[in-house]
Protein 1
Amino acid sequence: MISFTKNKSAKGNDCCFSIVIPTWNNLKYLELCVNSIIKNSAYEHQIIIAVNEGVDGTKKWVENHGFDHIYASSNIGICYALNACRSLVRTKFIMYANDDMYFLPDWDVPILEKINELTDYQSDIHKYYMISSTLVEPSGDNPCAVIRDFGTDIETFREDDLLNEKDDLCRNDWRGSMWPPNVMPLDCWDLIGGMSIEFHPGMYSDPDICRKMWEAGVRDFIGVGNSLVYHFGCKSTKRVRKNRGRKTFIQKWGITPRTFTERYLLRGRDMSEVADENDLPGPSDFGQIVKRILSCFGNK
């Protein structure tokens, strides 16, 4: 049975983004993440922490600092955690971040500029979108990230080198915003119903929430190339028992996550490219039918 408590601080509402950070006994990374937001943001943001277990001192640390938070005595995963944090949000924007991330200086400035580009304040037209920072990762082949090694853990983290080389890490804006840290209007979050709990504890919940946004008519999934966040990588997910999210996604949407992220979202591609919606494979596509059938027989 899932049970948790909520704690809302008495702080004011004059913040830009509400940044929700799920954490699971990962205090040293959480401290680095939160301190980087406080130190390196150009604007003030609401920080909301979803504490899972917190037996490593996380619960006490969060309470002592007065952060808005929920507390669950067991690990409830990111889907339940993010949904549970919704009622604590004080701003018009909800952002999801991992606890193993370090936000570089002024990361929030180009994101807010991009939001302003998408919003016509004179006519009060507010578009729906998902906007991500660009991750800097020590290894891998993520087409949305900049691959540069500044440390694989806190012990080997070269913060000064990262800050000194910040300007050389920027890239052009890209398509396919999906992974955290990402931000969307709170109205959009409410429209699509937040995270889908059938993906508990969270694997493949990222493409799923984007697919729900796509169904609602959202087409702006934008990665901002000069908003940089260093990502140590999967410090919590390596410890969790994973759900079979790929199978769930295929059976729910009729297409594979890869088809959606590469053909619909154009993951990692230049902003000049636009998906031809008349040529997108759907549930009736033969290849997708075969993969959907295979998923029913236990394929991951």
Protein 2
Amino acid sequence: MLLPFGIKDAIDIFCVACLLYYIYRLMKVSGSLNIFYGILVFISVWIVVSQIFEMKLLGSIFDKLVSVGVLALIILFQDEIRRFFLTLGSQRRLNFLFRLFSKKGENDAEETTVMPIIRACDSMSKNLVGALIIIERDMSLGDIIKSGETIDARINTELIKNIFFKNSPLHDGAMVIRRNKIVAAGCILPVSHSMNIPKDLGLRHRSALGITQQSDAIAIIVSEETGAISVAQHGEFQLRLATNELENILSSIKF
């Protein structure tokens, strides 16, 4: 006899599917996709053993493993869980209202924030000067900022170029931009250990990917070897961008 299936059941299935998809994306970004598959296999076996075949002894063993496994998963994926709750707590659901009432100053904001970054990256690209610029968004990068030197200056093309000049003591670290200011330079970033990063990309690219895996920040990378401009966002790269493509990306975000 088939159980009645209603709208509430459809919503329930949809919510579970969305949750599994979000966990899948989170695991994929952090390079833990195989663990996700392993968890799904374990849960499937547990359901078959305890619910379908009703094996009491084996089912009780699986129940104990699940109760202990939840705590182990929390410890193992504490960074991903922290990022999940930060995302929930920092989403600006009413951004469209803000944009509706702030269109008047968009061109001015773009000229004072986006264009100096574009011009600096274009110049550094042509002169093969390596750079790593992090743009903070909703999630705070306070710990990252504390690891570098405080700058607290308005975004300026020449200042960016001077910070990443090869003889500058801050050129090896990352610059962090918050709203319309350069708040710190020489910052230390978490390095991504993803196996999907192309072999020709160096430490700057790994650091850029690492910070975008742990936050919603945007990272701009200028390669010291090739001069190529790349962007990392949501744990993914957009490589070898032209200046107009970089401008489109930066113009679409809110500083």
